[in-house]
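Our platform keeps sequence and structure together, in a single record for each protein. This encoding replaces a full spatial description with a residue-level series of whole-number codes. We quote a single record here, exactly as it is kept in our systems:
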Amino acid sequence: MKEGLTAEEKQTITTLSADGWPVYRIAKHMNRSPHTIRRYLNQPEAIAAVRDEKQELAVLYREKARACVAAIDSDKIGKSSALQLATAAGICTDKALLLAGETPAVHVRLLLEVCETIRNRRDAESERQFQEDHTLLTLPASQT
């Protein structure tokens, strides 16, 4: 028979629950029964702890999203890492909005538009480079 939850286990359960993990996944991860996890999470102090943890996580995700967006500069826009940073910013923003109880759909649409613009710029640059290379290859030797 397992002993009661330790303070460390309670903190882990609180964090995982705040991050959206379902009871059965937490139980499997912690090697505990779902009943034990659910019983802990139904206690008033655990409910308050999960709520507080969600608020803290929302702040952290917003800060990460802000840092990702701030890191996108004109040099990175032309590189694939800008798309990766925009994606990371979108994921962090979505997570922050979900944790705050807000709807992220509008923000996701905006992020997709940004990603599409970056992709179109990259495609246009690739096409321009291809045309430039093709022109050089087709010039008579006397013109090169």
